[in-house]
Amino acid sequence: MGDLPGVTSKLEYLKELGVDAVWLSPFYASPQADAGYDVSDYRDVDPRFGSLADFDEMLTQAHALKLRIIVDLVPNHTSDEHEWFVQARAAKPGSETRNRYIFREGKGEQGELPPNNWQSIFGGNAWTRLVEADGTPGQWYLHLFDTKQPDLNWENPEVRSEMEAVLRFWLDRGVDGFRVDVAHGMIKAEGLPDWDGAAAMVEGQQAEDSADSADSADSEKAPEGNMNPPSPFFDQEGVHEIYRAWNQVLKEYDGDRMLVAEAWVEPAERLVRYIRPDEMQQAFNFEFLLAGWDAERMTAAITNSLAAVESVGAPSTWVMSNHDTVRHTTRYGLSTPTGFPKGISAADEQPDEALGLLRARAAAAIMLALPGSAYLYQGDELGLPEHTTLAAELRQDPAFARTKGEEIGRDGCRVPLPWYDQEPGYGFSHGSVEPSQPWLPQPESFASYAADRQDGVPGSTLEFYREALALRSEYELGQGVLEWLEASGLHQPDKDILSFRNGELTVLANFGDQPLALSTEFLEDRGVRLRSQPKALTENGELAPNSAIWLS
Ligand code: NOJ
């Protein structure tokens, strides 16, 4: 599956790529019912991934390279194999140990019906009924995700102090920050009222799906999210108190420690409430991720996000892919490049990989020129596509099983990345352990994306990313200010042209399928600093379709 010594061995690669920090998804002790987002011990490393000593070694080496390490914190739920839940299961209804989770009596004469109508985000019921110690059917417990991920009761002060102790445990070890999982989910509305909406982890999926089936003009609209009516388990006011407390915990430590929220909250004005000065430092900006390959939607996402973060004085973030979404290289190669499928199987439309990659590189040229923090998903820098033909029996995402395959799920974006094109498993297991098949098989096409094939090759995706990140740092774009080039007529999103200035740099992107003529004076006055692809600028001074350039 990859392990911490493996991460350590690739720190130099990451340094050379030009990133400042690394966010690691959960490596804690876990039965792996949801790829580690089901933690059974928050203070230990799962033996699959190494040991605490391996973690310390990785952290020391990262810091020596001036790379910061952000770890994933999963506070909404534990694993059902966590000591607390084991105790709660064995205890009596109403006991203190049960009060760490959300247990309720069922409805119906014999308590045979779930306490309310909430559905799990991974499909099926959000409640599971326990068999009590004496063998009789007992209380129900809430799990917004898998049955093996019981939700903690954040109304219980013991839960709060335990999670603060977990924060301190990792801060004491020297971590630079935390990515907070389901940051909008810990507090549930009083009385756990029924809710007629349907929840999706990835906001926007719902609206996109219903727009497709509605077959109306609305299907062109940007997704509006799934919180209509507002959900009783996401984005409740009470979550902010938790982050105000955590803000104080971080303040006890030296350096520049941070919290970044994974909160699928819309609109941007609601999201930025998580990054008010006394709460977290950053929040993932999923509006940008959901914009897809579309100049108007991307412009709107950037404008909205920058305006919203300005109101709280925090930096914006930008991200196009992560371990929960179909890789953007693949999404941009579909016939609807603004679509947002919940996984892709061999039975679905297959992407035009080359077109998707062209667009992904142009989108990266846009994203990496924006002020704020840019997050890359592992493999973005290789132009890696989704594995779209993974066999059903190999799928591990609980959402696939719980929806009986209706939702294909997230395995396709989690396939290990290829390091060496000639090695077994493309070198993923190369090094300290015996070469073996990686935990999810890679498609054959991954050979052509292998890092060793791209390293030092002019025009490769990897070299493009290295160049873009070096320039991002040189021009201090992260600290810059964006200005759309509307007045000069360069920024015309309705005509597939996106253009802005950030400090000394001008960015120009052509979302269309026709070359865009640029005036000779315009080009003569400026030097080309970056091309999203080697042929982004033609000899006649045209900006190629699906391409972007940086000029200074
Ligand atoms: C969000 C994580 O990114 C996802 O991978 C996980 O399944 C859910 N939260 C539940 O923890």
Structure description:
This protein has 552 residues and is of the alpha/beta class. It has helices at 4-9, 11-17, 52-64, 83-90, 157-173, 205-214, 239-251, 268-271, 286-290, 295-310, 328-331, 353-367, 398-402, 451-454, 461-474, 520-524; strands at 21-24, 28-29, 41-45, 68-73, 103-104, 127-131, 137-142, 177-180, 258-261, 282-283, 317-319, 373-375, 482-484, 497-502, 505-510, 516-517, 528-531, 542-543, 547-551. The strands form 6 sheets. It has a 5-stranded parallel beta sheet, covered by helices on one side. Helix 8 links the parallel strand 9 (258-261) and strand 10. The chain is globular and about 80 Å long. The model is unreliable at 204-226 (pLDDT under 50). The structure holds 1-deoxynojirimycin.
What's this, in brief?
By secondary structure, the protein is of the alpha/beta class.
